[in-house]
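Researcher: Go.
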Amino acid sequence: MINKYKIFDVHIHIFPDKIAQKAVENIGRYYQIDMYENGTVDALLESGRQLGVDRLS
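Model: Structure:
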């Protein structure tokens, strides 16, 4: 079945590659939650593709 609705993710967080991993670790520690990505643009785009997200902003 093809989804007739587009999926937009309008709340994203990305960081410069140089600090992305440390930023994600600190955010996870601060909020006491598990973080699953590394905070880079490439990781965001790949996870969006895998999940079928049509637009990230």
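Model: The helical segments are 20-31, 41-51.
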